[in-house]
Request: fold
Amino acid sequence: MSAEWEKHEATWLGWPHNKTDWPGKIAPIHWVYGEITRKLAQGEIARIIVNNETHETLARRVLDKVGADFSRLEFFRFPTNRGWTRDFGPLFVKRTGRRSEVAIANFKFNAWAKYKDFEKDNLVPELAAEALKLKIFKAEYKNTHVVLEGGAIEVNGRGTLITTEECLLDQQTQARNPNLSREEIAEAMRQFLGVSNIVWLGKGIEGDDTHGHVDDLCRFVNHNTVVLCREKNPADYNHAVLEENFERLKSARLEDGSKLKVVTLPMPAPLYFAGRRLPASYANFYITNAAVLVPTFNDENDRKALGILAEAFTDRPVIGIHAVDLVWGLGTLHCLTQQQPAR
Reply:
């Protein structure tokens, strides 16, 4: 699996339609998607998943008004349950060398072991493989179709993968693979994602209904450096969780045995909807060919986070995307997108 900053052929994203994901907010969410897509299309193809012709017409209308480059937009009519493409979309893997080739590793999606409606989302990788005429490999290990979401993993493109125990190993809450052990899950990721080294963090941030996705707390910014969110307020739930993860990273090793470099990223002040904390995090940024898109939250730490990431990504601009409405759906930019590496 390639690193996100490596050259993309395209980015996949599902146009929003499930009103329960953004209670009372679905209309403005279309415009946020429009802005994200407009920025994406400045450097690569945006492959947009829509349910049907009517859904596509709506998306085209919004994208036309925001000034998106239609020469870089492609629409795929794949019915979906939701729009969180990072988690159910195709996980692309790449073979390099004399025979460069891109394929899809087809893990099972079961709606984070939380929701009952996921059958349409689960079919998207197969539909994408058929549409693109790519090979697809079913991620089956010990007669089990392994469950894995894209937001649960972070890779550096050289063999190291970071994930959390809370997401992949917890057997009490949202258990993804109750019949597989820690080592068996690790071996499945080695086999189907081409990784050789796995770094296990502990828990994810409060408010994350995926139960511990790593893309809300720790991200690679180059092959040997990660940014890790840290919370200064000791009374905040996230403080102890993120400090434990910081301690784990200090002793972690990369695939070549060297130490990780860890850069601290702040957390925004807590955001709530209907009494529930939302998973607002600057770590949920997305790296495109042309820019790094970073969620912002009308918070005093917005500028600080953008500055830290601008120092980390010197080869492309870092751009803030207003995400206060978006995070009502319990996810932001990285959760919505999935990169397809250049062949």
Summary: The mean pLDDT is 97. DSSP finds ten helices and 20 strands in the chain. The longest helix spans residues 26-40.
